[in-house]
Design goal:
Two copies of one chain form a homodimer.
Chain A lengths: L40 H6 L1 H12 L4 E2 L7 E2 L10 H4 L11 H8 L5 H16 L9 H11 L24 E2 L2 E2 L1 E5 L10 E5 H7 L4 H17 L1
Antiparallel strand pairs in A: 1-2, 3-4, 5-6
C-alpha cells in the first residue's frame, strides 16, 4: 500500500551521510520543491514544537554527555551511530573520548536514515489520531494513510499504559519535562512498528524492558501483592 | 516495645541543629561511649559502603543541583529542610539562589532528626533480614528487634515489587548506579513505617506515586492490555 516516493537528493547540513543521502519524501512525480518533511508542514504552522519534537525523536539519539561530562545532554543523528569510530573521527566525533557507558547508550540508538524517515511519518500519523488533535489537511492525511493505514480519529493511546493520549499533553510540561515522549516497544529497535507516543512516566517505568517484558513484570507484582 | 534511649548530646559536625541536637541512640544506662550509630558498627567493619548508604539515605536529601546547575548532585541534611530560608542563609545555604524546582524537591525531603534516626535503624533491621545477609551480632540484633520486632531471616523483599532482595545486590552496580535504593511507600513521608529497600528499577517505576497508587496504576494497565 506504501506509495512510491520521489527520492531525489535534498540538501542538508548533516555531515554524517556522504554523497547526498538525504532524500525527498514526497510522492514520486510530485509538484513543487522536494522536501524531507513536507507532511509536517501543517504542524510547522500550527504547532512548531511538535514538528521539531517529531523530527528530533525520529532522527536524533537522546541526550548523552557528549562533549564532556559537564557539557550536559547533547544529541547526534541516529545514522551517524552506524559509522565506525574511525569514520566518525574526521567528522568531528571522537568516540574514544567518551566514557564506555555513553558509547553504549549512543550506539544502541543507531538507525538507518530510512528507518528514521519512516519513524517520523509514523509519529505524525499517531499525533493526528490523538484525542483533540487538529484536523489533518487532506493531502497530508492521504500521504500518511498510504504508509500506515486509515486514520481512526482519537484512537492514539499511550504505547505503554494504553490510555488515551490527549493531544494537549504536548503543551504541558512538568518540572521542565514534556509529558509525552516517544517510546519503543523494544528499546533496541527504532522502526515504525516499534515506536509510538507514551506518557513520560510510563516511558520511565518501562525502563530498559520491552513493553511485553514490562507487562510480564507488573503481572508478577500484582500476583505477589494479591497473594499476601 | 521500644526501649528507652540514652539521649545524651553527641558531638557532630552538622551545623543545622542548634544547641547540640544530635543524641546518643544507645539504650539508656549503656556502658562505653555515646554514639549515634552504634548499631551500624558491624556493617562498618564488614560492609563500609552499606553503613554509609544507610546513614546517607536516612539523613540526607537525595541529589539536587545544589551549588549550581553545573556542580552536579549534592545533598543536605533532611532536618535542615525544616528551617526557613532566613534561618538557612547564615548557615551558608541560599535557597533563594536555587531554581524553584530544586527548592520544591529539597523541601519535600524534609524530616526531623528523630525520624531520620528511626529510619536508619529500620533500614539496618531490613538489611540484616535480606537473603544472604551476614549474621547480626546479638547485641545489635536485640537492639533492632526492640524497635521493630523479631528478625525473620531472609524475609526482606523489595518494597515495591515484593521479590526477595538478596544482600549481595548491595555490591552490584549497573552503569555506576547501585542496584538497591531506599524507597518510600509514600514518597512524601520519611518515617520507619514508610521506608524500605527496593530495586533501583522499581523505585524509578514507582516515580512520584505512592506504592498503592502504583499498584492501582499497573492493575489498570493489565486490565487494558488484557481487554484488547
Amino acid at each position: 500500500m506504501t506509495i512510491r516516493l520521489c527520492g531525489r537528493t535534498v540538501s542538508s547540513r548533516s555531515r554524517f551521510i556522504p554523497e547526498g543521502g538525504h532524500r525527498c519524501q514526497k510522492p514520486a512525480g510530485h509538484r513543487g520543491r522536494c522536501s524531507e518533511f513536507h507532511y509536517l508542514e501543517h504542524f510547522g504552522r500550527t504547532n512548531k514544537r511538535l514538528r521539531a519534537k517529531i523530527i528530533r525523536d525520529a532522527t536524533m539519539t537522546t541526550g548523552a554527555a557528549w562533549k564532556s561530562d559537564d557539557a550536559g545532554p547533547n544529541r547526534i543523528r541516529r545514522w551517524a551511530m552506524l559509522l565506525s569510530d574511525a569514520e566518525l573521527l574526521p567528522l568531528g566525533v571522537d568516540m574514544a573520548a567518551l566514557r564506555p557507558i555513553i558509547v553504549a547508550k549512543l550506539r544502541e540508538k543507531a538507525a538507518t536514515y530510512e528507518a528514521c524517515m519512516s519513524v517520523a511519518k509514523k509519529l505524525t500519523h499517531s499525533a493526528y489520531q490523538m484525542p483533540g488533535a487538529p484536523v489533518c489537511p487532506p493531502d497530508i492525511r492521504s500521504y500518511l494513510e498510504s504508509h500506515f493505514g486509515p486514520f481512526q480519529s482519537g484512537s492514539t493511546t499511550c504505547l505503554i499504559c494504553r490510555e488515551a493520549l490527549p493531544f494537549d499533553l504536548f503543551q504541558n510540561a512538568v518540572r521542565g519535562k514534556a509529558e509525552i515522549e516517544t517510546a519503543h516497544r523494544n528499546p533496541r529497535f527504532h522502526s515504525p512498528e516499534n515506536v509510538g507516543f507514551a506518557h513520560r512516566g510510563c516511558n520511565i517505568a518501562q525502563g530498559p524492558r520491552t513493553v511485553d517484558e514490562f507487562y510480564d513484570w507488573i503481572r508478577g507484582i500484582i500476583e505477589r501483592v494479591e497473594s499476601n
